[in-house]
């Protein structure tokens, strides 16, 4: 605030004259600086011309110059050019309905007879500060909490300072306001829209309108947004008087929608009073809010709405948003036997896909509710991936057709890390979805935890500020305000393509669930809640007073809806089974039709295709693209391999992706540093060495009609990105979606996603997916965290019985794949890697693949394959038998070792060095799950005189041993013992001490060559 008298300003001008005389400023600089040189000096030469230009600018808009210049131009002795007579700024010429009083404002044009006084300048600056205070902090005193005060939700005309005003609101308490100012008109600045068509208002009216805009039942947070256009857009939609209102038709529609939400919960409470259902009582307005968002998005080119939400209110969303038949919802309460595959899930975790006509726009809208486990916000990143994929396949480049809505609980939104990880994706090139509409069901409690114990931030929504998302806090007991902010949120999303948050401040009618007793922990709060009417009843009373609806209409609607529910309840009671297939949230139309589930399409490709892709991948970028000198060497080595018709790991991977792209399969590779590859092996994206942001992506121009290839470095967000890619993979089965951990242990942070979504999705939700997780694995002496991908965890989650031996080995591989929940593998050759990834697409069904990938093998001279191993007629080898000297005379073999992964090469080198390769045979299990019983039995029978051992580099309580041991015993029917060769048990995955590591490795190798 400027509090310097005009006389003092002149003294400052004189004192700084010398400084500015030495440093001549450009006009753009001068306009933003103070009048810091004396008049005589500045009125010479160019400075005189400059001052005249600035004076012109000041006449047009006094706020365009520094406040000291503003005061300077008002002095009597300023000699303005004769052509520049004082004029009134445009705002003062506009008509006004305010009293005919002199408008006190620093923006008033200068006048010799009426100069602005320092007091008037102070008053004007105070008014400016007051307006900004309401915009910045008005939400702090907004009446958004329905539990704090009972008030008339329809009274929108009275100022809060008059209605509640024992003291000034907090937002203006520290600003100097004298009583004489209240009736004085002030010119409204460009930074507010409270005047509507009026350009000046008395301060009393300014405060009143600001309170109605910012301190009533909507609290708006937006002043941190660093885009003036967006801030002004919000002001247009909240500050202009009368904008927050509904017409009669909209109010009747709101009554109907609110009634359905309330009466549905009442019916469930009446029929199943002690059954868990996680109802939405206390926040029933959520249902009309979602419907309003769908209406608005449909009007603004939206075609598909994808919702992610936890369990609270989920059944109501299924019934009233997705329009799932009530009979099917009620049947879930009866505990019926399933008639199809899977174990199913509780009713408030199920998802659904629906396509229906929107009654407001008469347009068809697809609505998807993504299945979600109990882990609250976990499905949100999955939902975002699903949205991004739908946008990709619909060619929705503007990202207006497919809109994500995420529902949050207040405690979960601020407490669960997945929320930040998901929000952080919102503006990243290969992950953004054009903005998400977040709706927070703010129960003001987390299970039994008060907000003061569950978060440090003032609001549960503060996390959204990191992406400049506006936040609308709204009172759940003011339905019209809630509907309005829902409409604005949808408009914001479609216009600006960024996130927006609706914080519905409400309460939870019952405990955490309907069987819970909240009075144990919040007795005072729930004593108050028990006496509250639901929002529909309150709104009905208000609507009757306004002549919107009658008692007869209200009763008729209640009776009609109850009859509908009773009829559907009777139908559900006659059901004897339920179908989990009715709850699929991502149906793949026609994918499973006319397919033989016992046959896999060939995975080999022609040599011409192999040579073409390999050559392209080994050739420098076209034109004058300058690459790093080390990359030039790498490309030369690749080309040498192509000439010799051999491949390493990186080239084998490129052949996999390229051949699928040629066949029209979209390939997406995502993860930390995947473009180059963590171990500098991949180099799918090259960077020009002298031109910033100039990149060349291999595999995008292999063929003129190929599918799209996306390769993208992800943020350091394993949990969120893993969920995103999982959601992406469920949209189209004709796509290869790959997530790579930088090191295999990075997947530890996404373990919840593996446990509850990926490995069990088909069982719970009849939802297949073919995503691939590449998990670099292998003890390389780099310490515990960068050694093990914890393969034992993925094997433990495999749903196969270790005691069951298939009676018939005919076509066993396909039978096992069809029955298993996911695949766990560890390849040792580029060719097998090639076939395994291609098999993901060629199978007649989809299963997730957890693939342990190498580190040292990426450049190992023995880890090579020939073109002939990938040509037509070749396929994936679940087990690679011994091909060394021992296989030539199997009867003389003393020991048969089974192993998996890169340790094979270490074992083989040791055995050859010890000249034991005729006594010890090594077989590689490339696919651990499903377990290759047929191939294991065949190999064991071949070496009938040999001891059988499982060898691994991991510790005994890690790695594959715990999974393999019982299955080997089952395969051999207990007739031959299975030895263990490996490290002893350990709590840590690997030693971080080099000497200890070498000692363990020495002991491991000694056990391998021990024949006694």
UniProtKB/TrEMBL annotation:
Belongs to the alpha-ketoglutarate dehydrogenase family. Its cofactor is Mg(2+); thiamine diphosphate. Keywords: Glycolysis, Magnesium, Metal-binding, Mitochondrion, Oxidoreductase, Thiamine pyrophosphate, Transit peptide. Residues 98-119 are annotated as: Disordered. One of its GO terms (molecular function) is oxoglutarate dehydrogenase (succinyl-transferring) activity. This is 2-oxoglutarate dehydrogenase, mitochondrial. The lineage of its organism: Eukaryota, Metazoa, Ecdysozoa, Arthropoda, Hexapoda. GO terms for cellular component: mitochondrion; oxoglutarate dehydrogenase complex. GO terms for biological process: glycolytic process; tricarboxylic acid cycle. Residues 647-860 form the Transketolase-like pyrimidine-binding domain. SMART domains: Transket_pyr. It is found in: Mitochondrion. SUPFAM superfamilies: Thiamin diphosphate-binding fold (THDP-binding). CDD domains: TPP_E1_OGDC_like. It is an enzyme of class 1 (oxidoreductase). It holds the Pfam family Transket_pyr. Signal peptide: none annotated. Its EC number is 1.2.4.2.
């Amino acid at each position: 605030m400027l509090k310097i008298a005009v006389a003092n300003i002149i003294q400052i001008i004189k004192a700084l004259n010398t400084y500015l005389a030495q440093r001549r400023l450009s006009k753009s600089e001068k306009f933003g600086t103070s009048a810091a040189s004396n008049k005589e000096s500045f009125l010479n030469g160019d400075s005189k011309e400059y001052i005249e230009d600035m004076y012109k600018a000041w006449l047009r808009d006094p706020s365009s110059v520094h406040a000291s210049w503003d005061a300077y131009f008002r002095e009597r002795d300023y000699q303005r050019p004769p052509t520049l007579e004082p004029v009134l700024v445009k705002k003062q010429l506009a008509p006004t309905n305010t009293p005919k009083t002199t408008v006190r404002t620093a923006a008033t044009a200068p006048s010799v007879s009426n100069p602005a006084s320092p007091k008037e300048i102070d008053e004007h600056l105070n008014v400016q500060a007051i307006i900004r205070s309401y915009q910045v902090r008005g939400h702090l005193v907004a009446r958004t909490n329905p539990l704090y005060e009972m008030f008339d939700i329809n009274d929108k005309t009275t100022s809060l300072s008059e209605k509640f005003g024992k003291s000034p609101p907090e937002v203006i308490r520290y600003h100097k306001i004298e009583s004489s100012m209240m009736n004085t008109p002030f010119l409204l600045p460009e930074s507010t829209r409270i005047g509507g068509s009026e350009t000046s208002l008395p301060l009393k009216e300014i405060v009143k309108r600001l309170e109605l805009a910012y301190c009533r039942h909507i609290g708006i947070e937006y002043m941190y947004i660093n885009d003036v256009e967006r801030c002004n857009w919000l002001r247009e939609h909240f500050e202009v008087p009368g904008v927050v209102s509904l017409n009669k038709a909209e109010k009747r529609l709101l009554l109907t929608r609110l009634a359905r939400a309330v009466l549905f919960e009442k019916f469930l409470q009446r029929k199943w009073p002690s059954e868990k259902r996680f109802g939405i009582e206390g926040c029933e307005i959520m249902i009309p809010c979602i419907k309003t968002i769908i209406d608005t998005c449909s009007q603004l080119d939206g075609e598909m709405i994808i919702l992610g939400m936890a369990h609270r209110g989920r059944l109501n969303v299924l019934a009233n948003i997705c329009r799932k038949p009530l009979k099917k919802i009620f049947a879930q309460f009866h505990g019926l036997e399933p008639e199809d595959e899977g174990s199913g899930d509780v009713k408030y975790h199920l998802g659904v896909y629906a396509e229906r006509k929107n009654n407001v726009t008469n347009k068809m809208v697809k609505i998807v509710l993504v299945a979600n486990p109990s882990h609250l916000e976990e499905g949100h990143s999955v939902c975002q991936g699903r949205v991004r994929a739908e946008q990709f396949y619909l060619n929705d480049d503007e990202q207006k057709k497919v809109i994500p809505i995420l529902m949050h609980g207040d405690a979960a939104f601020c407490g669960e890390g997945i929320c930040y990880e998901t929000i952080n994706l919102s503006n990243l090139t290969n992950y953004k979805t054009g903005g998400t509409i977040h709706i927070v069901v703010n129960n003001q409690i987390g299970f039994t935890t008060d907000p003061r114990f569950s978060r440090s931030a003032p609001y549960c929504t503060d996390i959204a500020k990191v992406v400049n998302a506006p936040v609308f806090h709204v009172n759940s007991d003011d339905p019209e305000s809630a509907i309005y902010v829902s409409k604005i949120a949808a408009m914001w999303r479609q216009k600006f393509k960024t996130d927006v948050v609706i914080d519905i401040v409400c309460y939870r009618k019952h405990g955490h669930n309907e069987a819970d007793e909240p009075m144990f922990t919040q007795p005072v709060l729930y004593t108050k809640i028990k006496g509250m009417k639901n929002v529909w009843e309150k709104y009905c009373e208000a609507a009757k007073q306004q002549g919107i609806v009658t008692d007869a209409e209200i009763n008729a609607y209640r009776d009609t809806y109850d009859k509908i529910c009773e009829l559907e309840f009777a139908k559900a009671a006659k059901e004897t089974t339920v179908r989990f297939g009715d709850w699929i949230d991502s149906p793949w139309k026609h994918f499973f039709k006319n397919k033989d589930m016992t046959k896999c399409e060939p995975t080999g490709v022609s040599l011409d295709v192999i040579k073409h892709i390999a050559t392209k991948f080994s050739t420098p970028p076209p034109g004058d693209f300058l690459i790093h000198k080390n990359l030039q060497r790498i490309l030369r080595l690749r080309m040498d391999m192509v000439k010799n018709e051999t491949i390493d790991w990186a080239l084998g991977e490129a052949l996999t992706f390229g051949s699928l792209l040629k066949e029209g399969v979209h390939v997406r590779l995502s993860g930390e540093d995947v473009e180059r590859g963590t171990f500098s092996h991949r180099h799918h994206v090259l960077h020009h060495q002298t031109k910033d942001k100039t990149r060349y992506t291999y595999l995008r121009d292999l063929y003129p009609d190929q599918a799209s290839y996306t390769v993208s470095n992800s943020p350091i967000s394993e949990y969120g990105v893993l969920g995103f890619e999982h959601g992406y993979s469920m949209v189209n089965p004709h796509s290869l979606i790959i997530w790579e951990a930088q090191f295999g242990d990075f997947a530890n942070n996404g373990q919840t996603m593996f446990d509850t979504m990926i490995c069990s999705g088909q069982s719970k939700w009849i939802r297949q997916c073919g995503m691939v997780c590449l998990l670099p694995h292998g003890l390389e002496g780099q310490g515990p965290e960068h050694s093990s991908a914890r393969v034992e965890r993925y094997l433990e989650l495999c749903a196969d019985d270790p005691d069951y031996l298939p009676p018939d080995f005919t076509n066993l591989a396909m039978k096992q794949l069809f029955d298993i929940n996911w695949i766990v593998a560890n390849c040792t050759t580029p060719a097998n890697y090639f076939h395994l990834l291609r098999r993901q697409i060629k199978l007649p069904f989809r299963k997730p693949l957890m693939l342990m990938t190498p580190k040292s093998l990426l450049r190992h001279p023995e880890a090579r394959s020939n073109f002939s191993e990938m040509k037509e007629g070749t396929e994936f080898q679940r087990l690679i038998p011994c091909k060394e000297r021992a296989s030539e005379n199997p009867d003389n073999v003393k020991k048969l070792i089974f192993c998996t992964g890169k340790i094979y090469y270490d074992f083989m080198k040791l055995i050859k060095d010890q000249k034991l390769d005729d006594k010890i045979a090594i077989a590689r299990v490339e696919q651990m799950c499903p377990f290759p019983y047929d191939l294991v039995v065949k190999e064991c029978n071949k070496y009938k005189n040999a001891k059988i051992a499982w060898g691994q580099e991991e510790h005994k309580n890690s790695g594959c041993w715990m999974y393999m041991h019982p299955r080997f015993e089952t395969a051999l029917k207990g007739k031959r013992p299975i030895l263990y060769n490996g490290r002893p048990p350990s709590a840590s995955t690997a030693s971080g001490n080099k000497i200890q590591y070498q000692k363990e490795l020495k002991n491991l190798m000694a056990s391998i060559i021990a024949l006694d």
